[in-house]
Amino acid sequence: MANWKKVSKKSTGPEAEADSIVMILAGPSERVNAWFTALQMDSRFRINTFSTDPQDLETKLGYNPEGILLDSSIFAGPESLMNFLTKVQCAVYIIFQRDISEAFKKKIRALPAVKGIYLEDINLAQVSGRIYSEVMAMRNQMPAFQTSKRAKKSEGMIGGLRVITVWSRSGGTGKSTVACALALEAAQRGIKTLLVGLSVPDISIPTFLNLKTTPNLSGWLASQTFEEGIQHSIQKVGSLDVLVGLQDGVREDEMTLAPEEPASINQLVINATYGGYSVVILDTPVSGVYINAISASNTMVLVAQPMLDQALICAEAYRMAFKRLRDLHRIGVGNAFVVLNRFQSGLLSSDEWHEAADAYTRAMGVGHFPPVAGVIPETHEVALAANAGRSVLTAGKDFSASIHRLGDCLYGSGGPGSFKKDEERSFKLGPIRFRRGILKTD
After folding, report:
1. pTM here?
2. Cβ proximity of 280 and 161 under 8 Å
3. Domain that residue 175 falls in
4. Average pLDDT, stretch 299-304?
């Protein structure tokens, strides 16, 4: 961890999340990897997806980006580039690998979408502020575009790539069950989702989803590309793609490499983006690679049980992530979600549990602990479903309803089978709606 680069911290939280702009990075894989590394810690930008060829890039215009950073070398020539640019409505910043004629520059600059032309490379540290300002200005001038984006979100879609680390600092909390359920929930909403197991050995995901132990992450360690290392190692559960974790510890150390290393978890997430995933869920172990998983993520789900010791353990995990490791990841405090799993009568209520965790984080100088985003009841049918090779979402109405509500927090409300809000039994504080001590987002 000592050799990881530290970066200046940008503003985080709900306000930063709301004001971030959605970008597509397009160009040769080496170039877009470098761009992503430069932008991933900047909360002003949300990288929607990558593209390395023109046909794929044109298809991904359907993701409604607000800006495109484009290396023109992926196009066969000026004619195909011009043809593409005439179809784009968002801001485009183009890098040419060699000098171009003034006549062609003039022709390119005349296109409404083109906001900047650069030769050989772009210094993002210098121009990121300009890109952000220009795209925000376009957003403010195009209310119809904003309405369209909100409409898509209300249909269960999310803006940008959401990389979720599902984590707990103690075993036996049901973390892997929650990770599998959230992945199935996202896929059921029509969101292209990849679930990645990072435990070694990864027993839970194959068991819960009735999958084989191979192929698995060893394929990625052998070949660090989407086509060879990820696509060929994926197993499917309906529309959900799953990358099962390693089955022995022989190559476990390779998963703890620094973000810039080819086999790192960060590079795994970057390469997964070539598959067009909108959600990547990392089932993160208690120890080992958890720092690397947090570094690769922009969202965290902390799983705990409703007991006093679990409140303190979970609060310490939050302190570690947002104090000790704060310069190593891009997770805003507004993107940290807390889940109480296996609730049953006689244990702490969500309010009592949260009060204990909040007191700990405030005493440790971290500020307030996040509200509880979901309470999942103890459901014996979860184990029965896993043993029978069925989806955990079939494990009773109470369990599936809890996961669905948590999915609304993470992916946006309005997906298939959405639950109506009970306005009479809730109250609203800013963008957050509270009901029975449980956080909801509008």
Report:
1. 0.69
2. yes
3. 162-441
4. 96
